[in-house]
Amino acid sequence: MISYARQTQEEQPEAPSPAEEHIAPAPRVSVQAFCETVETAAAVQSAGEDRRLGKAHLKIQMGGMAAAIEAYRSAPTPNVIVLESDARNDLLTGLDQLATVCDAGTRVVVIGSINDVMLYRELVRRGVSDYVLAPVSAIDVVRSICNLFSAPEAKAVGRIIAVVGAKGGVGASTVSHNVAWAIARDLAMDAVVADLDLAFGTAGLDYNQDPPQGIADAVFSPDRVDTAFIDRLLSKCTDHLSLLAAPATLDRVYDFGTDAFDAVFDTLRSTMPCIVLDIPHQWSGWTKRALIGADDILIVAAPDLANLRNTKNLFDLLKAARPNDRPPLYCLNQVGIPKRPEIAATEFAKAIESQPVVSIPFEPQIFGAAANNGQMIAEISANHKSIEMFLQIAQRLTGRSETKKQKSSLLSPLIGKLRGK
Predict the structure, then answer these.
(1) Which of 99, 107, 134, 183 could share a disulfide with 129, CB 3.0–4.6 Å?
(2) Do the beta carbons of residue 272 and residue 230 sit within 8 Å?
(3) pLDDT tens by residue, 33-82
(4) Are residues 116 and 177 in the same domain?
C-alpha cells in the first residue's frame, strides 16, 4: 500500500473563483507529472510558472501511468507525483504496481475523466491524495498541489539530518558540508545546511559565502521566525543547496535554552525537503534535543580510543531515546594518519555493534586545498574517491538512490509549439 496523505472528504463545497480563494504557496518540493494529453501537459506546465509553485521543482513527462512505473524502477520518487489516466481498471492496476516502487511519504494526485464516487472511494482507499477531473486548468493543478501541504492534517515534508563529531577536530563539519553537497547535486534534492556552531562555524568558509545575516538572527528573534523570515536569511550556494550560516564571531555569548532552535527547525521542515544540521561537538540541552529530534543521525569519528568511547556512548543514548527510529549511522574519518596508532575498522564495528558507512582516508593535501579555497572536494577533483563515499553517506541518510541524468522531455517541442501559437 502506498503511504500517502489521505483526503477523506468526498463531497466538496462549490469552489470559489481563483480571484476570491486563497491558496497557500507550496514549500520547496519536487513534483513530477506524467501526462497522456498535450492539453493536460500544457496546464501543468503553466501551473509550474505560477508564483505559488515558485519554490517547487517541476518536471513533466508524457506516457502516463506506464511511464511513471518504469521511471521509478531505478530512481527515487519525488514528494508529489501527478498522474493522468482515463481508464478505470488500468488506473487501479497501475496504482498497485506503482506502490511497489514508490517511496513512503510520496503524495499522488490523479487527473482523470471518470466522474464516479465509487472510483473516488477506491482511489482514497489506495492512498491517493487527490483526484481532479479533466479537463484541468493551471489553477486546478496549483490548487491540488498546494493544498497537499497547507491542510491542517498534512505532515511536514522536511527531513532533518544531524551530523555530529564524536570528538572535536575529527572533521564532522567537512563531512556534513560535502554530504549536503552530494544530496543537492547527485540526488537533486533541495537542501539547506544549518551551521549550529555560532561562535566558530566554518560552513560560510567552506561554501565561500559571507552572508550579512544567518541563523543567529533567527535564534535571537524567535517571535519573528516564519517562512518569509527564514528565506531572507538563507544564502544560496547552488540551485539546490542553501546555507543558514553562523556568524562565527565572539561578540556574543551563545548560551541557549533547550528549545532555542525549535522554531527554526519547524520552519525549515515546512519549506525544505532536506535539512542538514552541522552540530558542534558539545553536550547541552539543545544539542541533545537536536540529535534526538532529527530524522537521521551521522556520527563522524576518528579511529582512536576516545572516539570509540564517545561514539559508543552516543549510540547507546540515541538508541534508547529513539526506540522507534533506526540506529544512528557513523563513519570513520582521517583514517591512515602516518605513524599514528589506530583502531581498525573491524574492531570499531565490533565495539559499536554496527559497521561504519564508509572509512574516509586521511588526505590533507586535497582536503586542505578545498578548505582554503572555499570549495567542496567535488569541485577540487571531480574523480576523487572520497566523492563516492560522500554520496554513499547521502544515500544512506536519505534512503534515495542516485538520480540519473535527465534526458530532454518529450513534451518540450509540444510546449514550444503551443507557446508559438
Answers:
(1) 107
(2) no
(3) 999 999 999 999 999 988 788 888 999 999 988 899 888 888 888 999 99
(4) no
Phi, psi of 58 (to 5 degrees): -110, 130
Shared domain for 166 and 61, answered yes or no, is no
Alpha helices in 59-137 (DSSP H): 64-71, 88-99, 117-125
Domain with 221, as residue range(s), is 159-398
Indicate if the pLDDT at residue 124 is higher than 90: no
Amino acid at 178: N
Residues 133 and 208 grouped into a single domain: no
Least Cα distance to 159 among 403, 397, 402, 401 occurs for 397
**Residue 360, in any domain of the structure:** yes
CA distance 315 to 153: 33
| pTM as predicted | 0.70
Are 64 and 109 members of one domain? yes
Q: What radius of gyration, in Å, describes the C-alpha atoms of the chain?
A: 23
Q: What is the DSSP letter of 72?
A: T
- What string of DSSP letters covers 130-166? EEEESS--HHHHHHHHHHHHHSTTPPP--EEEEEEES
